[in-house]
Amino acid sequence: MVAISANADQLYIGIDGGGTKCRATIFSPAKGVLGTGLGGPANPLHGLDRTLESIMVSTQLAIENAGLSLSSVNDMVAGLGLAGVNLPSLYSQIIEWHHPFKKMFLTTDLHTACIGAHEGGDGAVIITGTGSCGFAYVNGKSTIYGGHGFAQGDKGSGAWMGLEAVKVSLLALDGLGPQTSITNAVMAQLQAKDSMAIAEKMAGKPSSVYATLARLVIECANQGDEVAVAIVKDGAGYISDLAAKLMENNPPRLSMIGGLAEPLQKWLRPEIAALVKTPKQPPEMGAVYYAQSSFAV
Amino acid sequence: MVAISANADQLYIGIDGGGTKCRATIFSPAKGVLGTGLGGPANPLHGLDRTLESIMVSTQLAIENAGLSLSSVNDMVAGLGLAGVNLPSLYSQIIEWHHPFKKMFLTTDLHTACIGAHEGGDGAVIITGTGSCGFAYVNGKSTIYGGHGFAQGDKGSGAWMGLEAVKVSLLALDGLGPQTSITNAVMAQLQAKDSMAIAEKMAGKPSSVYATLARLVIECANQGDEVAVAIVKDGAGYISDLAAKLMENNPPRLSMIGGLAEPLQKWLRPEIAALVKTPKQPPEMGAVYYAQSSFAV
Predict the structure, then answer these.
(1) Is residue B194 located within the same domain as residue B110?
(2) Would you state the pLDDT for residue A4?
(3) How many CB pairs below 8 Å do chains A and B form together?
(4) Positions of chain B with pLDDT under 70
(5) Which positions in chain A touch B238 (Cβ < 8 Å)?
(6) Which of A181, A261, B42, B210 registers the highest number of CB atoms within 10 A of its CB?
(7) ipTM value
């Protein structure tokens, strides 16, 4: 690769693609953030065409938001953080795309989230949203724990917590498990009047639907429901273990990202909770930093 | 309904339809079992056309096996036990089918399994195969516990046990859970060399695929692996609770049916294990009894 020195006028676009949405941010080293755009799902595991479409939609919206001409896309250096591209086949499919950018650099969404959280520096992140995963990037070496997907992995995630909520509700309704306030909360949210209705409404649903029930478990736990407390402690215990494992890689900083990061924080083991630092920048800015550092090489 | 008295020459066909296969048995009160046939999947939840096709294939094979002419199907009184027909919509779809039988009586697979296990008498059954469920039929009243489907219900079943096997393997490989001999057994069976390969091979797989791993957990538990023992005890504990709950309905007999019935028996609580009686007849004979008793009304 030819070394090109960084240029203050160079435009960068950072793109963070996930299972439900795709965010793009246009950045100029001289002027900062110029515009942002939001597109649809961009997880290549769930479809390449949809992913590329969402990338282009978020890019075009960011260009419009920045007040730039659409042709400016050809001058931009892009950084992409996408789920699933740790698989060689998906990495190749994206990298072989005839993209419109001046140059495109591709890595995992975990990597760009980590770079963003630590503003370009080394560090570790725990993602606890619909799924859960731990990632460390230290001295050029990346390490992943968890992230094995619903329902076999992703402990401590929203989908995991939602599945546990359904399980304890069904057991309680059968008189085969302890009574819990989760049951009524789940029945109300699903508008299900008995166990068979719960089972029918949830059968075969994707992780994102289970994740909508996680909030109920946290609320019941915060009100002292014993079954809910046990679930949240079990999930938070795993996240604490994940954090301790990540710290074995000696990251200078550790952050938590995702919808459950804030509500779970107080349930972590105290020595772990004390380690967790607020993310400095969002994943799409991590993708900008990744584009900058890759382009500068 | 016009009352028709039972006739020793009347032919009955009992059909037991499940998620993987459909069994048909032709029975004559005068001569006993005349023939049997095996067809493909017959769970109307997973497709009506396929179910009706499997019913007809198993029926035709049973007719050939009995050495009867195909037209004899029009003289037979059929009893059908099918999963899912406790849902009114599925019951209607099957009952409205232009079937070839002289008469057709439809009930759930649980009901015919129970009738078969107790040779026509009242009783209770626990199914522990790919899924798990408890059913009691006493004094004309049926009661169901569990059977809420994978992965939210069906505790103690093969699919549940297989999912637990995958979970503990992934945790162990990440160094986030105790080491267990299950891990190597799962990796060998799946031909997966690391946690990501396990996750990829199992992602989105149906319950029947998870159930193929249950045997490994039982084997590891029988060899004293602590993690495997904990899983099997947890599952067997639920099945024991299910049995105790069924006994509240005062069934004269209790049987266990399904692929895990025999291996789980020694892990049940002793007072429960002592209650479990061998099923007298298979579910397709239960369907024959159901046809006979319904036709005689």
Answers:
(1) no
(2) 43
(3) 69
(4) 1-6
(5) 176
(6) B42
(7) 0.86
pLDDT at res. A20: 79
How does residue A6 score in pLDDT terms, banded at 50, 70 and 90?
A: low
Higher pLDDT, A130 or A117: A117
Q: Quick one: B271 and B162 in the same domain? A: yes
User: What's the average model confidence in pLDDT over A85-95?
Assistant: 87
In a domain, A192, yes or no: yes
Same domain assignment for residues A175 and A258: yes
Output DSSP code: residue B45: G
pLDDT at B48: 92
Give domain status of residue B226, yes or no.
yes
- Mean pLDDT over residues A255-278, rounded? 95
Domain count across chain B: 2
Measure the CA–CA gap between B85 and A243, rounded to whole angstroms. 48
The A residues from 68 to 87 touching B (CB cutoff 8 Å) are: 86-87
Q: Does A185 touch chain B (CB under 8 A)?
A: no
Are A265 and A167 in a shared domain?
Answer: yes
Same domain? A288 vs A269: no
SS (H, E, C) A71-99: HHHHHCEEEEEECCCCCHHHHHHHHCCCC
Range of the domain at B231: 158-277
Is residue A131 in a domain?
Answer: no
Q: How far does the CA of residue B41 sit from the closest CA of chain A (Å)?
A: 19
E strand or H helix that includes residue B265: helix B261-265
Q: Chain B: residue nearest A170 by CA?
A: B153
Q: Are strands A123-128 and A254-257 parallel, antiparallel or unpaired?
A: parallel
Q: Is residue A137 part of a domain?
A: no
Q: Tell me whether B277 touches chain A (CB under 8 Å).
A: no
Element at B211 (helix H, strand E): helix B207-211
Q: Determine the residue among B142, B143, B145, B152 to mutate to test chain A binding: the one whose Cβ has the most chain A Cβ atoms within 10 Å.
A: B152
Please check whether residues B170 and B215 belong to one and the same domain. Answer: yes
Q: Are residues A90 and A201 in the same domain?
A: no
What confidence score (pLDDT) does residue B3 get? 38
Point out the residue among A151, A155, A198 whose CB comes nearest to the CB of B163.
Answer: A151
Q: Which residue in chain A is spatially nearest to B239 when comparing CA positions? A: A176
Whether the pLDDT of residue A3 is over 60: the answer is no
Question: By the 8 A CB rule, do B283 and B23 touch?
Answer: yes
For the domain that residue A257 is a member of, what is the CATH number? 3.30.420.40
Question: Is B195 in Cβ contact with A148 (below 8 Å)?
Answer: yes
The whole-angstrom separation of Cα A17 and Cα B80 is 50
A53 and A113 housed in the same domain: yes
